[in-house]
Amino acid sequence: MFKFIHSADIHLDSPLIGLQQYPGAPVEEIRGATRQALKALVELALAEEVAFVLIAGDLYDRDWKDYNTGLFFTAQMSRLREAGIQVFLISGNHDAASHMTKHLRLPDNVFRPSHQAPESMILENPGVVVHGQGFYTKAVTENLAVKFPPPRPDLFNIGLLHTSADGRPGHETYAPCTLEDLLAKGYDYWALGHVHKREELHQDPWVVYPGNIQGRNILEAGPKGCTLVTVDDGKVTAVDHIDLDILRWVRCEVDATGTENAQEVLDLVFMHLAAEAAKGIDCPLAIRLRVHGSCGAHLELSTQPEHWANEIRALSTDLGGGNIWLEKIRFKTTTEVNLEEILTRQDALGGLLRSIQDLSVNDRLLDDLEREFDDLHRKLPPEMKFGEEAIKLDDRETYRQAMGDVRHLLLAHLLKRGTGQ
Question: Kindly report the CA angle at 370 between 369 and 373, in degrees rounded to 5?
Fold first, then answer.
């Protein structure tokens, strides 16, 4: 019987982009999180006395800023060598061989298969062969899996590959292959990398994405870590996810429907945050909070969003003792006020509300907005043009939504005055 660890997408020393703009951001903790998670991986390997560790690509996020990144990794691998633990490492799209300009000699317990063709590496004890191939260039578009060699019938066979098997939403299509391609090889275990969310594509034989070991932003929410595999008499008997994350990103949805005022919303938010804290997660939480629903508190929240956001931040600080950071707070509530009734009023407020409600976003207005913001759009850095938080100034839907938000805010302010709130 033996154990091994399957990890991937460590993205060591991944840079933080724009994090300083967020109130109270634990910048230093997040900056060092990938290193601390790698240390936790090494500690797990030592504690479990595994035979070897697999790293299925994207060990590094990009070319090193300096040699400290490589020196840190080398030091951790030396700890494994002293315990007699082998490491099998392939490059992925982020750390492709042609992309890295700095290099350091690795300890002799680290094996890197060729990036030119699949290569098989044998561990006589415990009787394992690892078939793998790394990336030479960032954008590998060919199916690498089909060229992997047939299995060795006398050994436990592992395939080590960085790939977007069957195409994975939100991930570039690199080294594409199908699940059938992988199963056809007849291996005992496929150790995949590239997808940052844990997935078990197949069992018997196991085909696994372990996910990355540390979430780096809200798009990588939830538990992060590695997969600990137990093999007995040539058969996989256990495949367990082990948490390694040093800081966990969490999405928290609060339905405020029916609440009458902002204080009731605060009480509701407290309950949700307390529930997250009560889960016993052994690391700080970075939470994105979204408050939604039709409620009487809408006017208070929409006209004083900064005040209520900071009330919630103060509440979370008190609750979490510094272990809860609210990365972002979004109020997406709607009013319970009967607009139809108010719009029929034959007074100044009713007339003004009808004028705002009837505002149209026509093509001419959109053309004007695009011209006004064209220069700003060209000056935006690339990281602000893509992803969930992208500023899409070249998309007309952005302007339509913005105009809707402006109309909504005007109505909220007028309703607040007109209803005496």
Answer: 85
Per-residue pLDDT tens over the stretch 172-222: 789 999 999 999 999 999 999 999 999 999 999 999 999 999 998 888 999
Instruction: In whole angstroms, give the CA distance from residue 419 to residue 421.
Output: 6
Q: Secondary structure of the chain in the HEC alphabet?
A: CEEEEEECCCCECCCCCCHHHCCCCCHHHHHCHHHHHHHHHHHHHHHHCCCEEEEECCCECCCCCCCHHHHHHHHHHHHHHHCCCEEEEECCCCCCHHHCCCCCCCCCCEECCCCCCCEEEEECCCCEEEEECCCCCCCCCCCCHHHCCCCCCCCEEEEEEECCCCCCCCCCCCCCCCHHHHHCCCCCEEEEECCCCCEEEECCCEEEECCCCCCCCHHHCCCCEEEEEEEECCEEEEEEEEECCCCEEEEEEEECCCCCCHHHHHHHHHHHHHHHHCCCCCCCEEEEEEEEEEECCHHHHHHCHHHHHHHHHHHHHHHHCCCEEEEEEEEEEEECCCHHHHHCCCCHHHHHHHHHHCCCCCHHHHHHHHHHHHHHHHHCCHHHCCCCCCCCCCCHHHHHHHHHHHHHHHHHHHHHHHCCC
Cβ distance 188 to 158 under 8 Å?
Answer: yes
What pLDDT score was predicted for residue 319? Answer: 86
Question: Tell me: the pLDDT tens digits for 236-247?
Answer: 999 999 999 999
- Contact of 329 with 289, CB cutoff 8 Å: yes
pLDDT class for 401, splitting at 50, 70, 90? Answer: low
